[in-house]
């Protein structure tokens, strides 16, 4: 499925791009104040850290998904090997969720002590930090699954990014994403005895869900990579401005 980010998702990228414009850099250089210079440099580093954690979590999830798909193609009928691989997948997902949970708790506990500066570009930089953190929080919650969801609005936001054609009113259906479906189906596969025909049918269904999951992961990966690149470029621009 193609990725079609909405205006809110692209707002940080647009503002970050504006930092590199010559007149913007002039304004920032003229209005330097140590308090907010330190504030933004620290904030940009924090955003990079969280974005890096999200990228790592997504990469690990992607690798596990590929391994599971591979074993299903090769060993569709071998329950022992498939069960072993499913166990690895679920264990890996637990590790990812634990890391995300720790990160989300840190994001909630770290408040920001903002000084009152009227410069419009400074206000926009603050806005982009808030919006970007919100997007990253939503992405981490989306990757981790149901128990770590913090806000239903954030959840719906990421669902709209990954599935732009779905209607927001479909709450009952969109409340569960592809990663959750795969998780639930794998746990069911591990915990219930099935007839041979039911087992094979369940595995075939799993293949379809894994493909959908892979599509979602790809879309999220593209957005994170784009955001990460802009965050790095912006931090370099800020360092160049403040060091001259």
TrEMBL record:
Example of a GO biological process term: shoot system development
Pfam families, per the entry: BPS1
Protein name: Uncharacterized protein
Biological source species: Fagus sylvatica
